[in-house]
Amino acid sequence: MQLGEFEDRFPAQLSGGQRQRVALARTLTIDPQVLLLDEPFGALDAKVRVELRRSLRNIHDATGLTTIFVTHDQEEALDLADRVAIMNHGVIEQIGAPVEVYEGPKTPFIFDFLGHTNSFDCVIRDGKARLGDKELKVEPGIPDGPGVAFVRPHDIVLSPPNDPEPTQDAKLPDTAIMRFVSARGQRAAVELLYEKRLIEAEVSRGGLNELGLSVGEKCTISLRLPRIYAKRDAEKQTGIGERAAPRPRFRKRLRSRLSGTP
Description:
The chain is of the alpha+beta class. The protein has 2 domains: 4-82, Rossmann fold (3-Layer(aba) Sandwich), CATH 3.40.50; 116-259, CATH 2.40.50.100. The chain is built from 8 helices and 14 strands. The chain has helices at residues 16-28, 46-63, 74-80, 98-103, 108-113, 205-211, 231-238, 248-259, and strands at 34-38, 66-70, 84-88, 91-96, 118-125, 128-131, 134-137, 145-151, 156-159, 170-184, 187-194, 197-204, 218-223, 227-230. The longest helix has 18 residues, at 46-63.
């Protein structure tokens, strides 16, 4: 547990992360057959949570103990688990390996729940959806009619306006306006305004530099690996219809970012 140097301290002299290690050690001393952890890292700061996740995974691998880990933190679940069960209103919607659940979500709720999501309207007809300049196959069982394409920020591809270069991705007809850019490390987060919707994109720093665009300028959006669902199901499960336009509070925060005022 990496607590040898703290053996003479009282509980009040230990940090939150150290107390959680003590609680875990106390549980392991009875040699349980199954270990149930109900949001054990909920009250800890982000850095300590990551450290304890690594420690817990090492303990799990060393002991071979079956562990059920309950959490609302999607990243925590995907990072720790061999298998993930996602519940919605007390009902299990999907079970599988983390990569299976993340890359193959069965319902709009799961896609929207596991990370940031952008949504784009489309029309489904005869098993295909028209999205931008492409016709894409949809999963069997999705009915004809209005549809929604969900796309992760890292699957939003940006290019200069009216870029003539062909692409395999679905290129949208209208341009977007770059509203905010936050570059950290090798990745950059970009917020765009497209048809009165806020779109989140994630690009490499090199890709952002090659794009050569700054805040306030226009760019073209292409969609890579969209996941298409019936619009009725998507709105019912995720409430995307309420996110069509920037919320007033978000607009105010965005203006503050752009102007530099608190």
